[in-house]
Amino acid sequence: MLPLNASEAAVSTFLLVGIPGLEGVHIWISIPICLMYLMGILGNCTILFVIRTEPSLHEPMYHFLPMLALSDLGLSFSSLPTMLRIFLFNTMEISADACIAQEFFIHGFTEMESSVLLIMSFDRFVAIRNPLRYSSILTSSRVLHIGLAFAFKSIPLVLPLPFTSKRLKYCNKRLLSHSFCLHQDVMKLACSDNRVNFYYGLFVALCMMSDSMLISVFYVFILKTVLGIASHGEWLKALNTCVSHSCAVLIFYVPNITLAIMHRLPKHMSPLAMILIADAFLLVPPLMNPILYCVKTQQIRVKVLEKLENLGLKSK
């Protein structure tokens, strides 16, 4: 256990960072960041609105998209306050309680998105393996129950994180590595024993890794099924239904896993690279997921264009 000396003053606030060396142009960097947040929020709200208001999209295969959109919105709103404070107002300080709360929401919505991507891979597997029985296997009520069970498993999983972080003592060190609070970053500042935080954080990370491994297994089964299809046209059609989901998986897990590795090997990693990867992890998935599904899913693309045309006509 690390000793807590009387000379070590307890801290009640932490310092976040923007982009080192570019503090003078933070206000200009805030422009693309704000645009990415705005586009991501509008895109995910559009997905929610279109699927909610279009009866033709009230089918099992579209029920998972609102869950993905909600987790993306949660990620955006969790990091938005501190990102804007840093890049717009150059305010780096955050209270310990606010930091721990942000840590909970970021990790909670990250786990939720991981779970949603997992059940979406199962959905694609069933659709390709048993297309004729798809509607009977994944009914609307069954999809809702599966989605809620998997998506909200993240709450009890990450719930101990703020309590384990709250019990730690924070002394002289208070400079964090990112523009927002992450559990693996906050616990390194503790001057008391943080072994519980380390091992439980590792457990949470392994749970997310298990989601990515299960997604890989489903894609192996999908490829095995697709390669057994004789018709080249059907082969391409089947793979095309997985393009949006596979891209969503890559843009979510690649920065996430890369960041986890960087935090485990901090001495060998560039701080700037860690900051950029972390920012990409929170900014890119909420921005790109609505674009991917609007571009690659014809039914959603058509309905979105119809809504936009209707809004244009009403404004005239």
UniProtKB/TrEMBL annotation:
It is a multi-pass membrane protein. SUPFAM superfamilies: Family A G protein-coupled receptor-like. InterPro entries: GPCR_Rhodpsn, GPCR_Rhodpsn_7TM, Olfact_rcpt, OR51/52/56-like. The keyword Transport does not apply. It holds the Pfam family 7tm_4. CDD domains: 7tmA_OR51-like. Its main location: membrane. It is found in: Cell membrane; Membrane. The keyword Transmembrane helix applies. Keywords: Cell membrane, G-protein coupled receptor, Membrane, Olfaction, Receptor, Sensory transduction, Transducer, Transmembrane, Transmembrane helix. Residues 43-293 form the G-protein coupled receptors family 1 profile domain. The chain crosses the membrane at residues 25-51, 143-163, 198-223, 235-254, 274-295. Putative odorant or sperm cell receptor. Belongs to the G-protein coupled receptor 1 family. This is Olfactory receptor. It comes from Rangifer tarandus platyrhynchus.
